[in-house]
Predict the structure.
Amino acid sequence: MSAHSVLGVKQAVTATGEGDKKELIRRAAARVIASQGFGRSTIDMIATEAGVAVGTVYNYFHGKDDLLRHIFAVEHGKRAAFFSELEKRDLTAMERLAQGLGMHLCAVAEDDSAARIVLQEGLLPHPCVGEARGRGRVLAVFVRSVLAAGAAAGELRPANPDTVAALITGAVQGLLEAYLLGVPDPGGRRVALDDGLSELLALLRIGLEAAK
Amino acid sequence: MSAHSVLGVKQAVTATGEGDKKELIRRAAARVIASQGFGRSTIDMIATEAGVAVGTVYNYFHGKDDLLRHIFAVEHGKRAAFFSELEKRDLTAMERLAQGLGMHLCAVAEDDSAARIVLQEGLLPHPCVGEARGRGRVLAVFVRSVLAAGAAAGELRPANPDTVAALITGAVQGLLEAYLLGVPDPGGRRVALDDGLSELLALLRIGLEAAK
Amino acid sequence: MSAHSVLGVKQAVTATGEGDKKELIRRAAARVIASQGFGRSTIDMIATEAGVAVGTVYNYFHGKDDLLRHIFAVEHGKRAAFFSELEKRDLTAMERLAQGLGMHLCAVAEDDSAARIVLQEGLLPHPCVGEARGRGRVLAVFVRSVLAAGAAAGELRPANPDTVAALITGAVQGLLEAYLLGVPDPGGRRVALDDGLSELLALLRIGLEAAK
Amino acid sequence: MSAHSVLGVKQAVTATGEGDKKELIRRAAARVIASQGFGRSTIDMIATEAGVAVGTVYNYFHGKDDLLRHIFAVEHGKRAAFFSELEKRDLTAMERLAQGLGMHLCAVAEDDSAARIVLQEGLLPHPCVGEARGRGRVLAVFVRSVLAAGAAAGELRPANPDTVAALITGAVQGLLEAYLLGVPDPGGRRVALDDGLSELLALLRIGLEAAK
DNA sequence: GATGAATGAGTATTCATTCAT
DNA sequence: GATGAATGAATACTCATTCAT
């Protein structure tokens, strides 16, 4: 394995900025919900955190559920954009995986509040979460397609791509979870995720790559 | 992979029965919370599901939080008992892993409501969940200790046990999650979990066992 | 004024004992209600304090309200018995007052829980308190009749007996209240009530007795 | 006794008006609690009486207890302001007493709901009533200080001021109680209180003033 | 009689949402 | 657009009372 960090692939994933106020409120909501859980967060808390009045929240969102949906959608969008861009590049399956997972962890390392929410609420039967249901849906879909393509191209040994995608996605979430709960220092957190990703990729290389 | 199911290791994990009413209510609560999420579940729903009056719930639990805590504790207890019993047997690290993870999935396959809750609520900052915090805490601790012991005994190649435990635990949760969300038929679910576990163990055998 | 205590007139006012259990429960209830207030007392607390089961309370009383009514009635009965006996004796108005008020304070000094309750709840619009309404009703009726008789006999100067009875009854309650709230030591409390009563009687002698 | 009413000393004690809504709710609550007792009053009743929604009550008060505390505090405040202003005037002890007690009764005659509450709840062990504990605390403190000062100045004969203050405060409360319970007509009530106060002051003049 | 588990009507309190300013 | 007071439906929890054992 080369010496440089697999998370070094960093890029401006977090380009944001659209409607000032809306974004301001989304971020505030993400912080509050990440720390309290959705059920224990109130619109008042969110408005206070954002420094606006309650009414203002309703000028940008239809309600609490809509706020949650939006947080999921933004997070989803970031990944989807990157993943679809990744599809176009000419890379091996393992390279694609490395970059996709790396980007996922990188985004979390930069702003974990949304990630916490996805982890916490993604499994709950919110009528509002809808298509984003499942904590790593976009990620899982991406991983699955990479695996399927890789197997088709003979790069990877044949295996049920749904199952393996579930394992890989789960492992990444497990990494996140362990370090979101366990590593307080943001600096150390980056390193920890980096280590974990390297370990995971190593396992996959040994276990999945077709014998040449 | 050997021909017999890795989930065949089934055993009477789900011995229950204690205080009739309390257990009745716990189960009903687990079903309701699993399907609605903790925040959207009401004591009335739980009482109705259990076929008792609201007041009766309060004769056995101090409140909604206490119910959740109890559900976690029972689930925790089941695993802990099995894991500690597993420690005493004379097994290789991989065998121990296979049996431990198998039992975990087996318990879920039999009664998934508690598992859903642990998956959903285990990450939330409930003041009540306490030491059980983290969706796979007991499992992670078990996996970590098996890995550490295995590495010390020279059975496994050296690797940061915290990181690898996080990956393995996550992969198992990912498996659960995918199938809890995706496979409606309980029969097929068992098979799916079985497949997933086999795949995971295969990966680990290739990737973790020290070269002989 | 003679040197001996005005409360020395003590007599076995607190003869009780009737139906063992009923009395046991009444006393327990009085203690609980005196310390918590009627509204904050529960049948459970009372049963626990009495060392019986909740159901047992209902074998002797029709409910919480009935319990309160009974406590009032017993207290009322003690005074009424003594007062009516006092009517028969050949005494001056001031002597009668001295003995009546003395007995009242004496009973309180011996067992203040019922007195606290009468003080606290006597004014509340309980549908259950009924005729005992008003914290010092029996006392007031007694005082009023002594005053009226005394004025008729020319012993006391003429004055509206209702008004004066209210003042005297109030003063006695004020005394009780001050010392129930203020003097923790039961011994000192006796002395304090004694002092207060002497002072009150002195005022009344000067202010009410008809000039000879 | 002079011909003019001792309650004639009337003054704008009941200046109110502050935060419209809060005051509106306080008054409604006072009416409800006065007629039902604290324990039997519900927030719904209070909100209905005030003509607002339940939630609105909670926009101004932290809860039922806070409402009670506030009612006590306002009543306390009215007296305290008047009493402290009275201290500054150049008056004899008896004059001070006459005006202080007069103002107390006057305030009650104008708005008896708060007075009923203080009488009813002031003795209960509400954790919320705190320093206002005791039904006539402010009044008692005032009376005591007047007595002590009067005795020091040689205007009054020596006597334990605590005891005498308890007697006087109690007598005033007795008066209130008798007439709050007994005199339905508000006009007659004023006269009755006036009579009672005159009688009390007459007794005190005879009984307490130092022989010249 | 004694017991105490079961009951469910009753209540305090919260909080998403609206809307007049 | 921004505000935040008002709203009232929703919900956790209490506790007097009953009744089968």
